[in-house]
Amino acid sequence: MSAADERLIVIGTIVGLYGVRGWVRVMSHTQPVDNLLRYGQWQLGRKGTWRPAELEEGKSHGKGLVIKLREYSDRELARQLIGTEIAVPRSELGAAAEGEYYWADLVGLRVETVSGQSLGVVDYLIETGANDVLVARAEDRERLIPFVIDQVVKQVDLAAGLIQVDWDPDF
What we know:
The relative contact order is 0.15. By secondary structure, the protein is mainly beta. The protein is elongated, with a radius of gyration of 19 Å. The strands form 2 sheets. A 7-stranded antiparallel β-sheet has the order 4-3-7-1-2-6-5. Strands 11-10-9-8-13-12 form a 6-stranded mixed β-sheet, with no helix packed on it. The mean pLDDT is 93. The chain folds into 2 domains: 91 residues, RimM (Elongation Factor Tu (Ef-tu), domain 3); 63 residues, PRC-barrel domain (SH3 type barrels).
């Protein structure tokens, strides 16, 4: 397995307490939200320091999730988890469907126009509702590029580390 398969991908954040028996509220970064519950090799972390965690139980609650981790049996123990990120190895995500991409795989790719002009490197993505947006950062500026396959994004080559776009470099 490659190092890329084992890098950790953040799939959620613990945002609050729920009840008195160690349950916590989670903001999921997966689509759909409850996909977070299907991953097995959880890691909890802050600032790049990770440790394994075992999900005991979890369920949808409102717009998010509530979970119970095996190691946390009461509210005061669980309080220390607020702000902690939940991650899994990239290999747990599996392959994306044809023509679809995990955001984590796009971050760090070079972005060029179809004529070969560099627009920077994908720093992060934004979900806008209408379409996702690539944020390409170059030394001199930041560009917001709609991630619309065929119309703007002409090619994504993960192996070459390149996204080609039909985009005005001055925009």
